[in-house]
Structure formats: structure tokens, C-alpha cells
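queue> pop job 88
queue> type: inverse folding (structure -> sequence)
queue> payload:
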């Protein structure tokens, strides 16, 4: 494309909209087939959101190789994805990157990362494929919508260098993401374009987000982490669900992988009333076993102050709260702690409760729900059932997905399939 041109001066076989993980994968695969491919990105560089995934380390996928078990993590959405994952699954993804020289490793909860813990390595690997197969890229360019003629998309309207132009192509792959992390360009633009051409779009809501807590004490220990804690969600004094994992206290409440993956259910429960979260700091011990542990600790440290003794078994950051909730003064000598007080301490350590205020807004979401209605997608090739030359990849699809590499794997799978399916 020539600078300043008002229409495209090159006939494309494929135009990919969105230069994130799904879009780069799709563009690379279509170009590898010898198809003339253009990749359009609204940011000044490709893979901006990819660079912040996994805390900048890029959680590439989840090493659950059994397709059915993997798809079970995706809720009702999983039933639509068996065909795509049969064509390009978790092992295929790992092999894809390994064969391109990107070495990977598997960590806790089957999370897969680059060996160098650097998301930029993933981005550079994908960009190298685009260069190898001569994909044209158009950055700093905002798509404005589609042009439809005779029930077929013929052009995409683009703001390019301040000019509104039309770019024609035989096929279009929409991979522009959803609404999570709008600072990276995911502002839900694709939803508007799809509605304009008659697609049904499920509007997004916060899906995987941190939780705001009403209790003031929970906001006074930001940065404190509990590595192995049982998190229970209760409503009307009934335990609805429980998970063990890592929890992080923040200035607004709580976060961390486990609580984030529970957030959608918590949000659903909030619609019907008060929700309480209970923390068990010693999930592997019964109350009696914890009581014995405390008695032994106290017997071995009779002359120590409470604050210097208990931090041997709990993170120091949580101590002020434990002291407050158990009504034991930090400076109290262990010798002077009554039996009733030690029993209460054990109860507190296995049942720290807090009331949920709300889910944080979708812009704080790791993954936001919403997207094109899955019933309008042919998952054998990722094409639209309304427009045969329109294909979908990545977060534009209304797929439930927990954190832990699942979202990126969906991008790789759907992007790969869309890329090899265009003709």
C-alpha cells in the first residue's frame, strides 16, 4: 500500500484485523499457504496485549493434553471447540513454538511459559513468521467497519494516516479481541462492526477480575500474599464453592489466580444477595491438628511475644489482622495467653471472613466475557454462518475461559484454524 493512497493498490486474498496473538497466528498461516495477506493493527506495534500476559512472562498455554479435560475448563463454550482442538491443540502449540526456537517450560497448575520468562520472545517469534512469509502489516490504523455487497464482505473501511480508505479482499479474519485491557487497544470495536452487518453479539461483562472487599482491614495489607490457602465462597451461610491456591491482598481487596478464576461465580452470586469469602490458612490441618500445632509452638516459645512467635507459621504481612481478629495483643507474652485465646486464634486461622463489595470493572479484567454468538460460527473452519468469507479468531468469540494459559491457547487454536481455512 502506498502512503496516502485512498484505496488499496494491492489485491489481497486475506485481510486479518487485529495484530494480537490470534491475528498474528492467523496471518502467518494464511501467508504460509501462499495467500497475499494483510494484517491491520490499531496500535503502533503488534502484540501489545501479548506483552503483558502472565505478568510479562506470557503464559503460552496450559499443558492439559487431553482435549476433553481441557475443554471442561471452558464451561458451556467447550462443546463448540472439540473440532478446532482436534486440528490444533495444546501439543501442537508447544511444538509450533519449540520448532521456531522458542523453548518452553511447565510450571505449577500446568502453566506453560517461555524458558526465558519473557513475553517479548513470543512476540518476536510470531513477528518473524510474518516476515518470513511476507505478510503486509498496517499499524496505527483503525478499522471503521465492513462493506457488504450481495451477502458477502468485499472491503474493510480503515482510517489510515488520517484518511478513510477501503481495502478489498477475498477473505477477512476478525481477531481484534474483546474488552479486557482497553489500554492495549481491546475496546470492543469488533462488536459494533458485527452488529452492523447482522451478527448477534453477546455484550461483555467482567469475567476474570479481582474482587473489591467491604472490610477495611483487608485493604490495609496490600502486597501480602497467602501461598496455600483455602478460599470458600458462602451465601446465606452456605458454602457454594471452595478452591485452594494463592491469594493476594490489594488496596481494594483481593486478587491472585485462584480468586480471579472464582470471580465470575462470585459476580453471579452477588446478583442475588450478600456474598462472604472465608479463608482457611491451614487447609491441610483439621481444627484439632492446628490446635496441637499452636500448643506445641507456644510451649517452645513461652517467653516470646505473640508477634514474634506466630510469624513462624504465618506470613508476617497477615499478622496484624490475625492479632486484631483474635483479640490478642501483639506484645502479649506467650506465657500470658489464656487457653480460650489460643482456641480463638485457631478458629481465626481457619476462618477469616470478609464480605464482597463488588467485582472490579471490566477494564481491570484479565478476560472479559462477551463476543460473537457461538451459534453463528462454523467451528470446522472458524467461518461466519452469515458470511462465508468472514472468519473469527481469539477473544472476539464468546468463550468462557479461566486464567492459566487457556485464553491464549484458544487464540492459537482458532487463529491457526482460521488461517489455514481461508482460500
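queue> result:
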Amino acid at each position: 500500500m502506498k502512503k496516502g493512497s485512498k484505496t488499496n493498490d494491492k489485491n489481497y486474498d486475506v485481510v486479518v484485523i487485529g495484530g494480537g496473538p490470534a491475528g498474528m497466528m492467523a496471518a502467518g498461516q494464511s501467508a504460509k499457504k501462499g495467500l497475499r495477506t494483510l494484517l491491520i493493527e490499531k496500535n503502533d506495534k503488534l502484540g501489545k496485549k501479548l506483552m503483558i500476559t502472565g505478568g510479562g512472562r506470557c503464559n503460552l498455554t496450559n499443558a492439559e493434553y487431553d482435549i476433553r479435560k481441557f475443554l471442561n475448563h471452558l464451561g458451556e463454550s467447550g462443546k463448540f471447540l472439540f473440532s478446532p482442538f482436534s486440528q490444533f491443540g495444546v501439543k501442537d502449540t508447544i511444538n509450533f513454538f519449540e520448532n521456531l526456537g522458542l523453548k518452553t517450560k511447565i510450571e505449577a497448575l500446568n502453566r506453560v511459559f517461555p524458558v526465558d520468562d519473557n513475553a517479548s520472545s513470543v512476540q518476536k517469534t510470531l513477528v518473524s513468521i510474518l516476515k518470513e512469509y511476507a505478510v503486509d502489516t498496517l499499524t496505527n490504523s483503525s478499522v471503521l467497519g465492513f462493506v457488504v455487497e450481495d451477502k458477502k464482505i468485499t472491503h474493510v473501511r480503515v482510517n489510515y494516516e488520517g484518511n478513510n480508505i477501503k481495502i478489498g479482499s477475498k477473505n477477512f479474519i476478525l481477531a481484534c479481541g474483546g474488552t479486557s485491557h482497553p489500554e492495549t487497544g481491546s475496546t470492543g470495536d469488533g462488536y459494533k462492526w458485527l452488529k452492523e452487518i447482522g451478527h448477534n453479539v453477546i455484550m461483555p461483562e467482567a469475567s476474570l477480575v479481582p474482587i473489591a472487599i467491604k472490610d477495611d482491614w483487608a485493604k490495609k495489607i496490600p502486597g501480602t500474599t497467602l501461598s496455600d490457602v483455602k478460599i470458600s465462597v458462602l451465601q446465606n451461610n452456605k458454602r457454594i464453592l471452595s478452591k485452594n491456591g494463592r491469594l493476594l491482598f490489594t488496596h481494594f481487596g483481593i486478587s491472585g489466580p485462584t480468586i480471579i478464576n472464582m470471580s465470575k461465580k462470585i459476580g453471579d452470586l452477588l446478583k442475588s444477595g450478600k456474598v462472604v469469602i472465608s479463608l482457611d490458612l491451614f487447609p491441610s490441618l483439621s481444627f484439632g491438628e492446628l490446635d496441637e500445632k499452636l500448643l506445641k509452638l507456644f510451649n517452645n516459645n513461652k517467653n516470646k511475644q505473640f508477634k514474634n512467635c506466630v510469624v513462624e507459621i504465618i506470613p508476617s504481612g497477615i499478622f496484624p489482622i490475625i492479632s486484631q481478629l483474635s483479640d490478642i495483643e501483639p506484645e502479649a507474652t506467650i506465657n500470658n495467653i489464656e487457653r480460650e485465646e489460643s482456641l480463638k486464634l485457631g478458629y481465626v486461622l481457619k476462618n477469616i471472613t470478609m464480605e464482597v463489595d463488588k467485582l472490579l470493572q471490566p477494564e481491570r479484567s484479565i478476560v472479559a466475557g462477551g463476543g460473537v454468538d457461538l451459534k453463528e460460527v462454523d467451528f470446522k473452519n472458524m467461518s461466519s454462518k452469515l458470511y462465508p468469507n468472514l472468519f473469527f479468531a481469539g477473544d472476539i468469540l464468546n468463550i468462557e475461559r479461566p486464567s492459566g494459559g487457556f485464553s491464549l491457547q484458544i487464540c492459537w487454536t482458532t487463529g491457526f484454524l482460521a488461517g489455514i481455512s481461508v482460500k
